[in-house]
Design a protein that fits this description.
With about 250 residues, the chain is of the alpha/beta class. The chain is about 40% helix and about 10% strand. It has one domain: Uracil-DNA glycosylase-like domain (Uracil-DNA Glycosylase, subunit E). Bound molecules: uracil.
Length: about 250
């Protein structure tokens, strides 16, 4: 993905449930909106094509069924510029989820998350700590490719987040690895800054969240980021081993 403006972006999604923009507030996302709009001549804050589906998936407990229901999604404008919905993939019983930002070109073309260059780095990092894709589930904050790989806009994140919430409710991960600023700020705290907070663990409702770099950011600055990224993967392995041994 083209992430040059993405990594340090702000989001004000406090938690999975704190999504609404307070009434009367002009914009909670001025930086995101300005930069994204500059980058991709698409209007800031596109209207939803359908109402947000906060509770639509409440009764669905099967991941395949959820996928079948989400694939035709048209809840925001991203779907009109994408080939299709990239639902996510991996082992739903693994207990570990990785959450990125949104599909890039290769992901859009293949329908699979993290299969481009950033994905290849993620695969290598997983192998380094003795895991493979079959040991984790990989998903994204938004499931359709933003045009020109721009940062997803807040209404697009809002429209898509119920899908991720439903995935997490079904998968019930013990550990979630947040790849980059958007997923960290959306799922933990808008004040997170990846450069400052990477490597930190956060506990939310019994789930352990690790903030780390987005692999695309690592690829852009290997000299400064690779060592820390691999260190974070080691930390994941240690945390997982502790959880498994009940320590
Ligand atoms: N970057 C992401 O955030 N997600 C993908 O699936 C691919 C690249």
């Amino acid at each position: 993905m083209s992430d040059s403006i993405k990594i340090e972006q702000r989001s004000l999604f406090d938690s999975l449930d704190g999504l609404r923009v307070p009434k009367g507030q002009a914009s909670l996302f001025p930086i995101v909106e300005e930069q994204a709009a500059d980058k991709a001549a698409s209007p800031a804050g596109p209207p939803l094509l359908e109402p947000s589906r906060e509770n639509e998936w409440a009764g669905i407990d099967d991941l395949d069924e959820l996928k079948r229901r989400i694939l035709p999604c048209r809840a925001c404008v991203l779907r009109s510029g994408a080939k299709g919905v990239v639902f996510g993939e991996g082992n739903p019983r693994a207990g570990i989820m990785f959450i990125g930002e949104g599909p890039g070109q290769t992901e859009d073309e293949t329908g699979r998350p993290f299969v481009g260059r950033a994905g290849q780095l993620l695969d290598r990092a997983l192998r380094f700590i003795g895991f493979s894709r079959e040991d984790v589930f990989i998903a994204n904050i938004v499931k359709c490719r933003p045009p020109n790989n721009r940062l997803p806009l807040p209404p697009e994140v809002e429209a898509c987040l119920p899908h991720l919430k439903a995935q997490m409710r079904i998968i019930k991960p013990r550990v979630v690895v947040l790849l980059g600023a958007l997923s960290s700020q959306t799922l933990i705290n808008p004040a997170i800054r990846v450069t400052k907070d990477r490597g930190k663990w956060f506990t939310r409702e019994g789930v352990e969240y690790l903030v780390t770099y987005h692999p695309a950011a690592v690829l852009r600055d290997e000299a400064n980021k690779m060592k820390d990224f691999i260190g974070d993967m080691r930390s994941l392995r240690e945390k997982w081993d502790k959880i498994q041994s009940g320590r």
